Amino acid sequence: MSEQTKILKETSENRSESSPDDSGSGTMEEMPEDTILSQLTSVNLVPFIGQRFVSQDAAYEFYCSYAKQCGFSIRRHRTRGKDGVGRGITRRDFTCHRGGYPQLKPTDDGKTQRNRKSSRCGCQAYMRIVKRAEFDVPEWRVTGFSNAHNHELLKSNEVQLLPAYCTMTAEDKGRVCMYAKAGMSVRQMLRLMELEKGVKLCCLPFSEIDVRNLLQSFRNVERDNDPIDLLKMCKEKKDKDSNFRYEYKIDSNNRLEHIAWSYASSIRLYEAFGDVLVFDTTHRLEAYDMLLGIWIGVDNNGTYCFFGCLLLRDENVQSFSWGLKTFLAFMNGKASGTVLTDQNTWLKEALAMEMPGTKHAFSIWHIISKSSDWFSVLLGSQYEDWKAEFHCLYNLHSVEEFEIGWREMVSIYGLHGNKHIVSLYALRAYWALPFLKSYFFAGMSNTFQSELINSYIQRFLSAQSVLDDFVEQVASNLDARDQGERPKMLQKAPKATLKTGSPIESHAVTILTPYAFCKLQEELVLAPQYATVLVAESYYIVRHHTKVDGGCKTNIYLCVGVTHHQQNLYVVQQERYSCCSR
Question: Fewest CB within 10 angstroms: 8, 355, 409, 578, which?
Fold first, then answer.
């Protein structure tokens, strides 16, 4: 085997204790004041000092795309801080896959170590990101970047052979599973996927060996026995803990059709924090060809709560109805006030039937994650401008402003008749914030929280090849959470700084968790921007002062006082803008 082939085949994800030389050639550490927020992943862009990203993953994807264009791959290197401890990870380095030097592995006496040449050559190319927070919104900034390589970069037809780029998406794995059921050979699968993706021969991001390994992993699973073992395990858990709940359904062929379960701790958490529910149904256990549904919430410490889990053989209204009925039975019939899901039409219909009193909304993260496939090719260079405009429309407060802005957006970008735009507009009451402001979502409706929720779900998916492993993975995550929460609840809240002098604020700091108090304090600080005047019975004029020199926007509300969770709220029954004055 040639030296180049050996280098290409060596994995690029091994960790190294060595670090890039911060004072090396081409390294920059100065961070300018004027920076821009970058959420782009275009391979035509070069990383620069001060570039901003919404998350570590966004920065990794950007640098990975840049590296692939240049002819190398990257790996995650050293960090500052630890995830889940204190402030968490505050710095992350990404390095070239040939950075550092190989380390000799200890061997037992009498055994000779395999003499395989390493691709590590001490390359100093890297990108460093540091976590910052402006206006309480966390972001990641590039504070160091060097593209000085001490080795040759690969050509475009060679770089795709690097292990970092030999990846299969969940959609690709699903297609391979479907083709295998149809009796297609591996080469037929590859050729068909090349035609579907419109790529040249042998230019898929994965090889024939990757497909064969995937199929072998499917065959290694005992599909008939494993679900039976899952039922046995659930019965054993039920015998040990009477509060553990599970339900299942067997089809006419005596196969497991549906199963759902929830833990005693999950039921207790739902009783206290079940006002807002996220029901994620975007993942599948491909080895069993079953849809995975996970119910999640958030507690008064801002920590995500696992409420229950669901596996469905079929994806239709009847299956989702069964799942929702079972979940409500687990939770003693208590339905949440609001629920966030993806845009699944069958789930939408099932929710309307089984939980008619619950406000159903779509997670904005799932919409944005699909926008690139929907509009990037159609809009071309205008896509990023459209994306920024869409974010602005999503965050508006007024329905009237949304309607005007939407018409302008459709006109400017020529999206009249586009099926995705038509669908989004028809369902705007399910995802646009101007239509959802009267409902409580515990902060989980914004894009940043939606992305964190998706990362939280990924924790449960690392052991999904065998159902027993998957269930144990969920249980171990819950145990770790409980052990981490007890010390947190017992800790004394740090001394908070009162900012408004309001009696409400003084009382709240004594009874609320630090997380809940910070959220309340944010609203109290903003409250003086609004001036309310009673002009007639049940009519109020609310002036929102948006400028330092007295500029304001005047709204007229017809309000009716209601009580919910021992907090006085107001349900807006009618609203109109009367004027914009200075």
Answer: 578
* Interacting residues of 408 by C-beta distance below 8 A, sequence separation 6+: none
Is residue 467 over pLDDT 80? Answer: no
Q: How far apart are CA 145 and CA 94, in angstroms?
A: 10
Distance CA 311, CA 468 (A): 13
Question: Among residues 268, 257, 333, which one has the least CA distance to residue 297?
Answer: 268
Task: Read off the DSSP letter of residue 169.
Answer: -
The CB-based long-range contact list for 248-253 (8 Å cut-off, 24+ gap) reads: 249/322, 251/313
Pairwise CA distance, residues 259 & 231, whole Å: 9
Mean pLDDT of 306-313: 90
Q: Is residue 163 classed exposed, middle or buried when 0-12, 13-18 and 19+ CB atoms within 10 A define those classes?
A: middle
Region at 501 (left for phi over 0; alpha for psi -120 to 50; beta for the rest):
left
pTM: 0.59
- Hey, what's the torsion of the CAs at 274, 276, 278, 279, to 10 degrees? 60
Average pLDDT, the chain: 76
Spatial CA neighbour of 341 closest among 464, 458, 427: 427
Q: Is the pLDDT of residue 231 over 70?
A: yes
pLDDT of residue 461: 65
pLDDT at residue 19 greater than cutoff 70: no
Q: For position 432, what pLDDT does the model report? A: 92
The answer to whether the Cα torsion of 42, 47, 50, 55 is positive or negative is positive
Residue type, 490: L
Mean pLDDT highest for which of 215-219, 229-233, 354-358? Answer: 354-358
Q: Report which of 94, 93, 151, 99 is spatially closest to residue 123, judged by C-alpha positions.
A: 99
What radius of gyration, in Å, describes the C-alpha atoms of the chain? Answer: 27
The share of the chain scoring above pLDDT 90, in percent, equals: 21
* Helices and strands of the chain, counted as H and E runs: 18, 16
Q: Which two tokens stand for residue 124?
A: 């100093």
From the CB of residue 509, how many other CB atoms can be counted at a distance below 10 Å? 17
Which residues are registered as beta bridge partners of 258?
249, 312
* Cβ-contact 12, 162 below 8 angstroms: yes
Residues 6 or more apart whose CB falls under 8 angstroms from that of 560 comprise 538, 570, 571, 573
